[in-house]
Amino acid sequence: MPLSPYQQLEQEFRRLHAFRGAASILRWDAAVMMPRGSSELRGEQLAALETECHSLLTSPRVSRLLDRADANAQGLEHWQLANLREMRREREHAIATPRSLVSRLAKATARAEIKWIEARQKSDFALFAPHLEEVVNLLRDKARLLGKALDLAPYDALADEFSPGLRSAEIDAIFTTLGRRLPGLIHEVIELQAQKPPVEISGRFSVSKQRQLALDVMRTLGFPFDKGRLDESEHPFTGGVPGDMRITTRFNPADPLTGLMGILHESGHAMYDVGLPEAWRGQPVGRDRGMAMQESQSLLLEMLISRNRPFLRYLQPLLEKTFGVSGPEWEVENLYRLLIRVRRSLIRVDADEVTYPVHVMLRYELEKEILDGELKVMDLPEAWNSRIQDRLGVRPTNDAEGCLQDVHWAVGSFGYFPSYAIGAVIAGQLYEALRNDRPALDEEIAAGQFGGLFEWLRENVHSVGASLGMPELIQNATGRPLSAAAWLRYVEGKYLED
Amino acid sequence: MPLSPYQQLEQEFRRLHAFRGAASILRWDAAVMMPRGSSELRGEQLAALETECHSLLTSPRVSRLLDRADANAQGLEHWQLANLREMRREREHAIATPRSLVSRLAKATARAEIKWIEARQKSDFALFAPHLEEVVNLLRDKARLLGKALDLAPYDALADEFSPGLRSAEIDAIFTTLGRRLPGLIHEVIELQAQKPPVEISGRFSVSKQRQLALDVMRTLGFPFDKGRLDESEHPFTGGVPGDMRITTRFNPADPLTGLMGILHESGHAMYDVGLPEAWRGQPVGRDRGMAMQESQSLLLEMLISRNRPFLRYLQPLLEKTFGVSGPEWEVENLYRLLIRVRRSLIRVDADEVTYPVHVMLRYELEKEILDGELKVMDLPEAWNSRIQDRLGVRPTNDAEGCLQDVHWAVGSFGYFPSYAIGAVIAGQLYEALRNDRPALDEEIAAGQFGGLFEWLRENVHSVGASLGMPELIQNATGRPLSAAAWLRYVEGKYLED
């Protein structure tokens, strides 16, 4: 019997998935294993794979098959209909941007990234500005074309690539709530924490012992080491593909906690991917529901679960045993205070849970203004510096700790930043629902039992894949539409307790 | 100006090269880094890449471009004409086998390889026989189709995939010469070596020190660590792609020499790839000239250069320093005797330089007979055992040390084996020419100066790429057509000296 149009589409997308998985492993290799002199060659391999993916998605054959499958959809199951919808979504994104623009953007961002590295090293924005300008000009064209095709505002069209269904209207609503509450909250928390400063940890903590501890913790979480690895890289990330997860971290011999917290963050991403429905693997419907959902999973595990007392009750004896340490600085309460310190700081990736959204909201504002043309690229450093001072009360002394700190704009990822803060908000709302559903969660975590946590997440988040939009997923999992309320309750409860 | 047909072909083959390079890194990853449970997923990624390469090579577009480029060849340079010829060669190989047969062979060999592993573990040929039977039946079809397309005998058509231009007629001539001389020679050498047995090395040699020594030696050879790596894997191999070479070995803590000799072997392969002309990279003309030439480079470095006194004069102080050892067993003359011991043994990959061709010749005979149908798969164990006893005077006590020892037939690599012994013969002939051209070679090697060696190889072998056929390459490099004479002179001189 010949394959139906829908079945043929499944075949095509399985091929797409194989190419993307190959590319993902090659990117992991580039960050973790590859000799430095091989990057140009690797760039050619990745470009060939990406071009192939783009050709596949935009081929007339896929277009025809989609139309024929839509016209013969009556026999399809619910998840297959969702899969068709996601296939079409991917195709619409791919086809809206002409190949020449894709290629010009690829070249411009490759140049801009190299210049950004140099500019950041020298803290010299002027070096980077013309390249960012070029990227922005091309992105404006892309946003306009994509917006027209998807019937979205230009910025929303870009954001939709990272977090499908996330719109400025919802982002604005959430960020307005956060923006109203956070400045006062940050002030209160810092005052309060100043009254009970934690004892600092000092000493040397061998990387091999840190790695051993991390592997132990990951095993306890249920990370499947028969289908995944832990390695080290300059910037921690989660790579690979479900079925072959590769997470990385960076260990600091003077600090036994930061590398581990990085691993818990990345493990949150990895466990999401591991929990995606196996039966849908290789299909668009079997993917995660975008970067904001991804970030909700990493932040939930790192911030809400691990930087918390029950987890530290589980961790503390492991720390003592692994490093042969004891003393007041190693007590659970002290570790907790060390891990939830709130500070007015300049660097987003080092920021704590409470100030983090402020960093993100600044970038969101600025990138929208740049894209609209309201803010000129050359005026970015001053706008950045004055606004971060307004919001957080700290001012960069150079652009490396200001508008040159993140790679995102250089590589053209406009519309990505909101996912970080929206992810935190989602994590807060999931956490509240999870605690309601599992009253014994704290005791389980303290006993090193993570099965219940991941069972809940698998049932309510992971197993959904991309079969629902993000709003429905969150509504179903928590019984409410997404809002900042639960996260604010969580943060206030955690950081303003007596 | 629009691209000429030839230029468009270069683009297509650059894309092919990128896909193959990606696949090569993914295969390296599978052997060295990948978690065990991810092999099925990796199989899908590799299959998608291979299918893509096959589609590209067999596309009507490439066919049209080849015809148009041939018709407009007057403006092309010499290397471009060679490139066109190699493009056509690759296409003819790809198109001769219908896609359905390619796919059936891929599945049959995947199954057969798994069964081979099990059968070897249990030393039970009966488990493997029906799967080998299936592979052989499909290979017969392939050999017939390929032979018809290339105007070659079926076996030669298969061999041509591994070593372009290598034919049974030449193989037979060389193997007849070797077969006449080797039995007597082996007897004489073993008698002679028995008179001066070397002192055995004993002790433990830490893997990290062995690795350090190996890295030192590789650096001295000129291995480009900015574009390559050394790792460990179960079976040593050379992977990656020129510009990102990945070699592996396996260290034995009880034996400081075998891991290093493996690295020297693989470094011979890697230096060949490193020396291929950069200007032709990504094009068929820029590839190596097949497996026999590859093996000539690895054997030249391992057997003729490294298992020799000048190299050991360079290595000996490094061994003493690295492992903090001294004594009679570490003297150059003793190390030399340890490294050139000749033994009648059963396992090809552990065989010495002199008996090695006997193992290969046996496989060559058997695989031709199996392909012709002269020998039945079920009769293979007995044929193997009685013939290896005839030729070498040893008889396997089970099939794991007999006809189940190599993976080649399971994965369908009929026609591959001769390349190993022909590679040795080429190495012998190149070595003779090299020594004539560089009378100070021994002194250079003893001083740890490998520049002259690789300069000669680069000029005479590596830089040729695939611009010449193997016979012309050898004629140009050595002034003579390929024969076994030089290798026999070398072996007799080395192993029969007083």
How many helices of chain A does DSSP assign?
Answer: 20
Strand content of chain A: under 5%
Largest interface: A-B, 36 and 36 residues
Order of helices and strands of chain A: HHHHHHHHHEEEHHHHHHHHHHH
Percent range of helical residues of chain A: 55-70%
Backbone shape of chain A? globular
Please describe what this structure looks like.
Two copies of one chain form a homodimer. With 498 residues, chain A is mainly α. Helices cover 65% and strands 3% of the residues of chain A. Chain A has 20 helices and three strands. Chain A has helices spanning 5-32, 39-58, 60-71, 78-96, 99-122, 125-150, 154-162, 168-195, 207-221, 258-275, 291-306, 309-323, 332-339, 356-372, 380-392, 418-437, 441-446, 451-460, 470-478, 485-495, and strands at residues 228-232, 238-241, 244-249. Chain A has a three-stranded mixed β-sheet, with helices on both faces. In chain A, strand 2 (238-241) and strand 3 (244-249) form a beta hairpin. Chain A is globular. In chain A, 43% of the residues are buried. Chains A and B meet through helix 1 and helix 2 of A and helix 1 and helix 2 of B.
Question: How would you briefly describe this protein structure?
Answer:
The structure is a homodimer of 498-residue chains. Helices cover 65% and strands 3% of the residues of chain A.
Q: What is the topology?
A:
The structure is a homodimer of 498-residue chains.
Chain A lengths: L4 H28 L6 H20 L1 H12 L6 H19 L2 H24 L2 H26 L3 H9 L5 H28 L11 H15 L6 E5 L5 E4 L2 E6 L8 H18 L15 H16 L2 H15 L8 H8 L16 H17 L7 H13 L25 H20 L3 H6 L4 H10 L9 H9 L6 H11 L3
Parallel strand pairs in A: 1-3
Antiparallel strand pairs in A: 2-3
